[in-house]
Every structure is written in structure tokens, then in C-alpha cells.
Amino acid sequence: MLTADKHEFSIITIVNRENIYQEFKKSLSQQQQVDYELIKINNDNNQFKSAREAYNEASKKATGKYLVFIHPDIRFLDEMALHDILVSAVNIDDFGIVGIAGSPVRMHKGHFILLTTLKQGKRKEGIGDPITSPTEVQTVDECFFIMKKSYWEKIPFSNIEGWHMYAVEQCLQATLDGKKNYVIPSRIWHLSAGVSEDRNYVRIGKEIVKRYGSNFPYINTTVAHWDTHGMKRNITPWIYYVQNKIMLKVRDHPKFYQNCRKVKHVFIKP
Asked: Do the beta carbons of residue 242 and residue 134 sit within 8 Å?
């Protein structure tokens, strides 16, 4: 039984822009049948060097049995959206990390796979391949993911500096610990266009491969497929960086963007 000062869920978000956070808070306040505390991490003056550092600091203060890490540009599409996600998550036996978007261990005919029911961007576009039930994946996206606090205490976020692939890293560590990671259906809108790769993304990706690559033949994320052996592990990160920069430029033209994605998957095998 929870005491008066404890909650089932600790919702943790990093805030750089107060107006975006206030909109998130308003959307969150409309959610029903969820016992939670909200932990706001102020980073408006770059107080933290990394999301990992910020999340570790917040997790120490959290009273919830489950830690729910959410980007502040997430919006809930109906008042039971959060409840349904959390119920689905806690009903999974002994999970490592649970998210609402992820990539499986195996690809389909060499093609990158994104599993999610997430809506994204200004036009609320559907992205990836939809799922209807909890589905095992290798890694999940950082925009929304869940882990037990007891598991965070065992495996906290690492010391890698920067703002990318922290959920990916937690998933890899959970796999090495014998646990499974999952994505579950959601009714969520992510305001971001979903393309934020920069040189630091490549740097962190290479560090992830360096630390964990010997344990995995490859690492699939919601952004790219990372080779972990041979010359490809040094070349493909920059190929993906250039690809995503190009896709970002054309994303404001939906029909052209969709055609580009089709062409990419025909000629460029992740």
C-alpha cells in the first residue's frame, strides 16, 4: 500500500522552454485514474551536461514504484491515454524498459522497422508500423519510456554526456541483464518532427557501439541500424547523419517526404 507521500508513478520531464512545459502540464492534468507525482527538471540554463545526469538526479528524489520519463512536447490524445499505457506496462512480467515506439532485434528483408502507434509532427502523421499489443523490441525511443525504480537503483543511467540514446542504452543493459524490452500501443501525439540527429548523436552512437557492440551483432534504434563490427561501424553513423539531415529538409512537404522514404528503403538497406 502506498503512503500519503508516495505515488505509483513518478513522471519525470526535462524542461528547456517553460511554455512547452506548461502545455504538457495542462495535457497531463486532464489524464484520469493515474496516481502520479510530476518531477520537473529545469535545464533552461544548461544546468545539466546530459539527460542521463538529469534523470539520475530526478530519480533519486522520485517516490514512485515506476519511473516514467517523458519529453515535454508529448500530448495525450484522450483522458485515458496515460492510464492505458501504464496499465499495459505494469501488466508485463519483469520487463526491462517499456516504451511507446521502438525497433525490434530483427529487420524485415534488410529494412529498418519502427513499431509504434505514435502520432508525430505538426500534422499528427502516423509513423512506422502500428502494433495492437505489447511487442518485444531491442530498444525504445527516448520520447516516452518506463522502468521500475528498483531497477533504476540497480542500473542507473551511465556517465555518457549528451542528449541522445539514453533509453537505447538502458534497453541494452536490460537485455544483458536477462530482461526483455517492449513497446505498447498508445494514443500519444509527439509534437517534434522526430529528426534531431547532429554530430553529438553520431558521437554518442559510436560510444554506445564501443561499450556494448561486442555483445550485439547490431543495435537497432528508432532512428537507425548501427553496425557493431568491421569497417561498417565507423562508416554507417555518418551515412545516417547525412540521410537524416536531408530528410529533415523535405519533411515539411508530406507527399515528397513519403516518396523519399520509399526510395530510401528500396535503394538503401540499413
From this structure: no
**N- to C-terminal Cα separation, the chain:** 48
- Which DSSP state fits 30? T
- Report the C-alpha gap between 164 and 218 in whole angstroms: 18
Instruction: Judge whether 240 and 197 are in contact, CB under 8 Å.
Output: yes
pLDDT tens digits for the chain (270 residues)? 344 568 999 999 999 999 999 999 999 999 999 999 999 999 999 999 999 999 999 999 999 999 999 999 999 999 999 999 999 999 999 999 999 999 998 765 556 689 999 999 988 999 889 999 999 999 999 999 999 999 999 999 999 999 999 999 999 999 999 999 999 999 999 998 766 667 788 889 999 999 999 999 999 999 888 889 887 777 766 676 676 666 666 655 656 656 655 554 444 443
Q: Output the CA angle 177-180-181, nearest 5 degrees.
A: 115
**In a 3-state reduction of DSSP, which class is residue 63?**
coil
Residue 163: Cβ within 10 Å count: 19
Distances (CA, A) of 133 to 31, 92, 115, 186: 21, 11, 11, 10
Q: Residue 87 to residues 83, 102, 146: CA-CA distances in angstroms?
A: 6, 19, 12
Between the alpha carbon of residue 45 and those of residues 74, 177, 224, 248, the distances in Å are 22, 36, 30, 27
Burial class (CB in 10 A: 0-12, 13-18, 19+), 211: middle
CA gap 100, 127 in Å, rounded: 12
Rounded to two decimals, the pTM is: 0.88
